[in-house]
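Good day; I would like, with your permission, to put a structural problem before you. What I wish to show you is a protein chain and, alongside it, a tokenised description of its three-dimensional fold. Thank you for your consideration; the sequence and its tokens are set out here:
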Amino acid sequence: MDYDAHEQTYEGFINFSKIGTIAVLTIVVCLIMFAFGGTAATVFGWLLLIATLIATAVGMALGASGWIPPAAVFVLSGILAILTV
């Protein structure tokens, strides 16, 4: 049994889980903006969905600190949702 490979796989799974959870929460906020916001919220929602995809890809490439870019987009989407909805 290769314990080092097991540890790397586990760390990768935990990293993917953190990034995926933050990305899904951001998508939910964008859906709220689409449903309850006006034109500005719809435009910001689309921009934030694109930013979420990019931040998720960057986060996956970063490794252990990969949750930071999606979290920044999530915070930005939350602030914009509060302002536009």
Remarks:
- The mean pLDDT is 94.
- The longest helix spans residues 3-36.
